[in-house]
Write a structure and sequence with these properties.
Shape: globular
Strand order of the largest sheet: 4-7-6-5
Number of helices: 5
Radius of gyration: 18 Å
Structural class: alpha+beta
Strand content: 15-25%
Number of strands: 7
Distance between the termini: 14 Å
Largest sheet: 4 strands, antiparallel
């Protein structure tokens, strides 16, 4: 489990605006999760549409590959998301008051590492797939720690999303269309 925190008091996440012992503002944990998702989803959408889809599908100047280093290609949007998650976790080790985790998961993962593992993840991914436009929020206890867990739909935002998933040899689903829910972003914050 990844580390998380940001001065959390019961269900309120306190964010220190200035240094020292006095936190001046408090933000509800749900609002913090929603804000984190807004940034993550915006970055992921921009990379997918403005970089990968443009260079691979429109201009056809480079390909995207899960073996991007060997193939001298672009990293897939899901890989960029995971790299960001891993870097954020590593950088937060030096910030004891900052503690959260996020991951991209799916009920139809191309990479089996991205399958849901907890019941909250399974329930959340099913909920966002069946209730387009709605998010899933719950709490769960893992390893003795109680977490606020939020799941947000991850949708196909560009043709490259659909073709990559539908054509991949390891995909369990071959009929994704633009706008379909392909998985979900799971954000977890300890309470």
């Amino acid at each position: 489990m990844r580390k998380t925190s940001i001065l959390i008091c019961s269900t309120v996440l306190s964010v220190g605006v200035m240094g020292g012992a006095n936190a001046v503002d408090s933000v509800p944990v749900k609002v913090m999760a929603d804000a984190l998702h807004l940034v993550l989803d915006s970055d992921r959408t921009v990379y997918t549409q403005k970089i990968v889809n443009r260079l691979v599908k429109k201009e056809k100047v480079i390909k995207a590959s899960e073996h991007f280093e060997d193939d001298k290609a672009l990293a897939l949007p899901a890989q960029m998301f995971r790299f960001g998650s891993e870097l954020a976790m590593k950088r937060s080790e030096a910030m004891p008051d900052v503690n959260f985790s996020y991951s991209l998961q799916s009920l139809w993962p191309v990479n089996k590492q991205n399958e849901p593992k907890t019941q909250a993840e399974k329930d959340g991914l099913k909920y966002v797939a069946e209730n387009k436009g709605k998010n899933y929020y719950t709490t769960e206890t893992l390893g003795g720690t109680k977490y606020f867990t939020a799941v947000y739909a991850d949708t196909a935002v560009a043709p490259v999303c659909v073709s990559c998933h539908n054509d991949h040899p390891d995909t369990p689903k071959f009929d994704f269309k633009i706008g379909d829910v392909m998985g979900g972003v799971v954000i977890r914050i300890p309470l």
